[in-house]
TrEMBL record:
Residues 40-70 are annotated as: Disordered. InterPro entries: Methyltransf_16, SAM-dependent_MTases_sf, Small_mtfrase_dom. One of its GO terms (molecular function) is protein-L-histidine N-tele-methyltransferase activity. This is Histidine protein methyltransferase 1 homolog. The lineage of its organism: Eukaryota, Metazoa, Chordata, Craniata, Vertebrata. GO terms for biological process: methylation; regulation of ribosome biogenesis; regulation of rRNA processing; regulation of translational elongation. Its EC number is 2.1.1.85. Protein-L-histidine N-tele-methyltransferase that specifically monomethylates RPL3, thereby regulating translation elongation. Histidine methylation of RPL3 regulates translation elongation by slowing ribosome traversal on tyrosine codons: slower elongation provides enough time for proper folding of synthesized proteins and prevents cellular aggregation of tyrosine-rich proteins. Residues 54-70 have a biased composition (Basic and acidic residues). It comes from Chelonoidis abingdonii. Interacts with GRWD1 and members of the heat shock protein 90 and 70 families; these proteins may possibly be methylation substrates for the enzyme.
Length: 365
């Protein structure tokens, strides 16, 4: 994992940062140096980096410092645009299975209604836990959905094509991808502050990043996924489950006063959330031209969303339109996605050419 950050260039002064996370299985040639048995340190020619500094605690990101995580692998913080952004690392092993490249479709965006009866959201769901958060068991969802006829039919399509990604049809949100955990880990160690922040979990899938932000008292959290099925069957249930102790027995055996208290709690929580599905360009248009007030995001969290270079333009423009001028994006990714062609180098190059943001790599695992 290699988190990295971007900041705006030129007249758009202010802080923006993208963070990239990569799963790297082997030592990255020329750049990672073994520190003891497990830790690697990123070697960089960047003047803004401070490679000698080592700490076991993650730090809040600033543009001047470098943080080396002794207990994990290595990290460097975001660098100002005036220095070279170094995010060089060997391709990590991708676990992505893909179909041949096609152009992305333009799935219309929609905002999902939040159901009045939250217990219904968890019907037929089996919950598991990871890093202290509840999430729906995907196999059970897949089994249920493959038995029903469903508008998008992404489960059957994914199974019949033996693929986790079907360009323009299913973009992988049913499963939880590895870098989500890396980014959660990073945000926790960095003691990232969410209080009063407006946060977007972009390409959310299970939505664990957004749920983490909610748990840390973010003011508002929006969730976006390409597929409606993912929002209805995975993201929404996961959010509800994390405020109902995994759903339990649906509160059947609880005294009604406790049930009401819980319902009020979820109601309050849900008033902070919005859920969207659809293609990125469509999503940003919906937000910006919709009749609900929209304030730009302070933080955009996104994991494993730069696998397909065909989407970079839409992704970049969406972020440009939706991020506050003092905002920051944390992006977690593998170094390279075999078969699809995306990855950190090509994305950084793309960002550089667009000349709107600057990147800073803050952590490599
Ligand atoms: C590989 S999944 C990662 C899901 C989740 N972030 C995780 O780490 O587990 C990529 C996500 O990016 C989103 N995505 C990819 N391409 C998209 C596009 N062109 N428009 C909108 N969303 C897209 C999808 O919602 C999909 O769930």
């Amino acid at each position: 994992m290699l988190p990295c950050a971007l900041e705006p260039r030129g007249p758009r002064a202010g802080k923006m940062a993208f963070q990239f996370n990569f799963s790297i299985e082997e030592k990255a040639e020329n750049e990672l140096e073994t520190l003891g048995d497990t830790a690697l340190q990123l070697e960089s020619a960047q003047p803004a980096l401070n490679p000698g500094r080592s700490t076991e605690k993650s730090k809040e990101i600033s543009s001047e410092e470098n943080v080396v995580h002794k207990d994990s692998v290595c990290a460097h913080e975001a660098t100002p645009k005036t220095t070279d952004p170094v995010a060089n690392c060997s391709p990590g092993k991708s676990q992505v299975q893909v179909l041949p490249k096609k152009r992305a479709g333009f799935k219309v965006a929609k905002e999902h209604n939040i159901p009045g009866d939250f217990s219904k959201v968890l019907e037929n769901k089996v919950m598991d836990t990871v890093q202290g958060l509840y999430y729906v068991n995907i196999s059970v969802v897949e089994m249920t959905l493959s038995n029903d006829s469903h508008e998008e039919d992404i489960v059957s399509k994914s199974i019949s094509s033996h693929s986790d990604l079907i360009t323009g049809i299913y973009e992988g949100g049913l499963k939880i991808w590895e870098c989500t955990f890396d980014l959660m880990d990073y945000l926790s160690k960095a003691e990232m502050q969410f209080i009063n922040k407006t946060v977007l979990d972009l390409g959310c899938g299970a939505g664990l990043l957004g749920i983490l932000a909610l748990k840390r008292k973010a003011e508002k959290v929006h969730f976006q996924d390409y597929n409606r099925t993912v929002i209805d069957e995975i993201t929404l249930p996961n959010v509800v489950a994390n405020w109902t102790d995994g759903g339990g027995d649906g509160g059947i055996s609880e005294p009604s006063s406790k049930k009401h208290k819980k319902a009020d709690l979820i109601q309050a929580l849900m008033s902070k959330c919005r859920f969207f599905s659809g293609e990125w360009t469509e999503f940003s248009q919906l937000l910006l031209s919709g009749n609900k007030p929209f304030s730009k995001y302070d933080l955009i969290l996104t994991s494993e969303t730069i696998y397909n270079p065909d989407y970079y333009s839409a992704l970049h423009d969406t972020i440009s339109k939706l991020l506050d001028k003092n905002g920051c994006v944390y992006l977690a990714t593998k170094a390279h996605y075999f078969g699809v062609g995306g990855g950190v180098h090509i994305f950084e190059k793309f960002i550089e050419e667009r000349n709107v943001f600057r990147t800073r790599t803050v952590k490599v695992i």
